[in-house]
Amino acid sequence: MTSEDQDLEERRLQMQVYHEWARLARSRPYPDFQDMEDGALEPFRADSAIVQVYEDGAAPQLTFVGANLRRDCGEGARLERRDDVPAGTLLAHLTENCAQCVSNRSPIWFEAEFDNRLGEKVKARGILLPVSSDGGTVDMVWCAASCSVEAREEPVAPLPIPQALAQGQVALEGETLAALQDDLAFRALVVELGKRLVEAAGLEGLVGLALVASAGGEVVSQLRRGPGFDLPRAAQFMAGLARAETQALASGPHAERVEQVAVTTARHVGFARPLGEVPGLMVLVALDRGMLNLANARIAMARLARDLDGAGVR
Questions:
Q1: CA 49 to CA 128: how far, in whole Å?
Q2: Coil, helix or strand at residue 60
Q3: Residues 214 and 112 in one domain
């Protein structure tokens, strides 16, 4: 369900509950609870709660709580009074204005965005409606709400970067780079980087994807190579271009880091992205211009950069 569909569904629940409440009230300003006990609550049961409010200021009682409103309260939670409701839950947000609803004797429309106890981002809409327990006194509230939930994102494990490499103490070129190919820690880093790159790089028209040594343009790990694409040559060229831009920026009054280098040819669009956390390595991406235009290629790379950041490849 799209966010627009979810938004429409939440508003629909608000209006359906409101119209049912108005139907039960008939010519009265509000319905009595007996009308609701006759089955009117049933279509909205999972998304509803009934709260009893007392004039003497005693804690409001929860006469009924639907399954969807119990979801983030904890399995087996005992919900008898308003004070029993855990903070940061949908039920807590929905019922916090029950006393105002009773005092005003009129509906209150409810909207909220919050992080619940499960670490989820919640967007909720609902309504609070006054109800009488005896046909005269307003002392109950019919609460109903639905919500959309964004699941909690699990933290990304840091890359297994050897300390000397992270601190820039190892030059990834020549004999040093050749020797590192047999180093277990370096190989573990390359394998993990490759795994995260492949998962993130679901790009249309992808003809080249590799980890490249910035100093000499050597291909450290070839991850994707399309037919007829000269990946080693592209790696040498892009590494040289990235070095030139890095040197040019370093000589200026304000030192800056090269985030990305782009080159367009008649057949391909190439991007080089140096890795700040792994000095000496860069990501090479090549896209087929026959499958997407230049504007779409840049959009795709912006999306890839975002996805790489999310995957801990920076």
A1: 10
A2: coil
A3: no
- Closest to 286 (Cα-Cα) out of 211, 199, 208, 194: 208
Q: Residue 278 has what DSSP assignment?
A: S
Can you tell me the distance from the alpha carbon of 25 to that of 21, in angstroms, rounded to the nearest whole number? 6
- Is 157 inside any structural domain? no
On whether both 79 and 196 belong to a single domain, the answer is no
State pLDDT tens for residues 170-227: 888 888 888 888 888 888 988 888 888 888 777 778 899 999 999 999 999 998 888 8
Cα 260 to Cα 245: distance, rounded to the nearest angstrom: 10
- Domain contains 158: no
Residues 186 and 92 in one domain: no
Residues 239, 137 share a domain: no
Note if the pTM is more than 0.85: no
What is the CATH classification number for the domain harbouring 45? 3.30.450.20
Region label for 247, one of left (φ > 0), alpha (ψ between -120 and 50) or beta (otherwise): alpha
- Report yes or no: 169 and 140 within 8 Å, Cβ to Cβ: no
Domain of 80 in residue numbering reads as: 3-150
